[in-house]
Write a structure and sequence with these properties.
three-stranded mixed sheet, mainly alpha, 6 strands, CBS-domain, MgtE N-terminal fold, Tetracycline Repressor, domain 2, 449 residues, 3 domains
Length: 449
């Protein structure tokens, strides 16, 4: 039995016994994320029973941590009115949007109509309008802001009202009469400044912010670069519309990493182990088909060089080595480039990047070629010219594969296509085919076939 189930075994026994009192005592001491982990191992009936024993605030937070598909299935047990009142009304606007956006459009509209808090309802409507790939989709509208004309004592009173609806307060934002972001107000200034002073006299006008319509990936990089726990979000007019916290960015990065990993593995759409067999098959088939087509092209290349192999049968033995090396080198080069693009550390000098990868390929290729040359000459006892042919072909293939692995991700990125596509079957298949073609071309040139 897994470790988690050992920890949760007493709680599981109480659920089977329907011992509500004992369950309530245990879950009252647990964090929402731990309850969610336990929730995953229960069947639907047990989940409903446990859920009804929690207060709305804890149960709503717990739902944020469970698997998306499990959450969608579990919410079928509740009416739209119950979802609005017991779940959406207990969480921040950004989390509310995450849950609502998973539901059918007609159900989304019904839930919004049942939300008693008009301000929250309007915030959710506004956030739902953002594309999922822009910074606005990551933000929450709950924040603490004060007008720059207020006195310190009036600002503190205003901040207390706004903070009541927030779990954590990281920053206090200063705005003007049009809600344009002017800066931030530090806790130190609040504690050390005279209460009769105005906010405009003490706030910090140095602003680090992101725009609501800029790519979410850029916003995440910005927060990473300046090591921010929170960043304010402004619209095109400079008005403060929300804030992005570090937990929102971490969730986004995890989702993007999962997608990139799946693309690199040859999976066309975002799936996980809980998806249906049909969905998983549909996601895997496109790249498997491309791989199959690549294999067929490779077989045609070999057929076209059948005469060369009949004259020098030893050439055939090294086809797997050439193809595998080409694929591996290409994947290594593309992985480094994609990582650099993702971290924004690659720079703008494409030629410099290409030359660096080619230099690495030359160094690696020379070492491997010398090893294979010695192996063929002294262990396999091949002819000198055959040994030279295989080594030269191997070096050439390594250099070409590295160039392709470098150029393709950069090209895709410049054309707004996810470069992660280039780290998987695409590079492997194309370099396999090209490697074999280069191999036999060099063999014909050197051996005069």
């Amino acid at each position: 039995m897994p470790k988690e189930e050992n920890i949760y075994q007493p709680l599981l026994s109480y659920i089977e016994e329907k011992n509500a009192k004992a369950i309530s005592e245990i879950i009252s001491e647990m964090e929402a994320v731990d309850i969610a982990n336990f929730f995953e191992i229960l069947d639907d009936t047990q989940r409903v029973f446990l859920y009804e024993l929690m207060d709305n605030e804890v149960s709503a937070e717990m739902l944020l941590y469970i698997d998306e598909e499990d959450r969608k299935e579990f919410l079928k047990n509740f009416s739209t009115k119950e979802i609005a009142e017991e779940i959406i009304g207990e969480i921040n606007s950004d989390d509310a949007v995450d849950i609502i956006s998973e539901l059918p459009e007609h159900q989304q509209n019904e839930i919004i109509q049942y939300i008693d808090d008009n301000e929250l309802a309007q915030s959710i409507v506004d956030l739902l309008r953002y594309d999922e790939h822009v910074a606005g989709s990551l933000m929450a509208t709950e924040l603490v802001k004060v007008d720059h004309n207020l006195s310190i004592i009036a600002a503190v009173k205003e901040m207390r009202k706004q903070a009541e609806d927030m779990d954590e307060v990281y920053s206090i934002y200063v705005v003007d009469e049009q809600d344009k972001l002017l800066g931030t107000l530090s806790l130190k200034k609040l504690l050390t400044t005279s209460t009769s002073s105005k906010v405009s006299d003490v706030y910090n006008s140095k602003i680090r912010c992101v725009q609501d319509n800029e790519p979410a990936e850029d916003a995440a990089r910005y927060m990473q670069k300046y090591e921010l726990f929170e960043v304010p979000v402004i619209d095109a007019l400079g008005r403060l519309v929300g804030r992005i916290t570090i937990d929102d960015v971490m969730d986004f990065i995890k989702e993007e990493t999962d997608k990139d990993y799946q693309l690199a593995s040859g999976i066309a759409t975002d799936i996980d182990s809980t998806d249906t067999i049909l969905n998983i098959t549909k996601a895997r088939l496109p790249w498997l088909f491309i791989g199959m087509v690549g294999g067929l092209i490779g077989s045609r290349v070999l057929q076209g060089n059948e005469e060369a192999m009949s004259h020098v049968p030893a050439l055939m033995f090294f086809v797997p080595l050439i193809a595998a090396t080409a694929g591996n080198i290409g994947v290594q080069a593309s992985a480094i480039i994609v990582q650099g693009l993702a971290n924004n550390t690659l720079g703008q000098n494409t030629l410099k990047t290409l030359m660096k990868e080619v230099s690495v390929a030359v160094a690696s290729g020379l070492i491997l070629s010398l090893i294979i040359f010695g192996f063929n000459l002294f262990i396999n006892h091949h002819d000198m010219m055959i040994s030279i042919t295989i080594s030269v072909a191997l070096l050439s293939v390594i250099i070409i594969a590295a160039m392709i692995g470098t150029i393709v991700p950069i090209f895709l990125n410049k054309n707004k296509i996810d470069p992660a596509i280039a780290t998987g079957p695409f590079i492997t298949t194309s370099n396999d085919i090209l490697g074999v073609m280069v191999y036999f071309t060099i063999a014909k040139l050197i051996l005069g076939l």
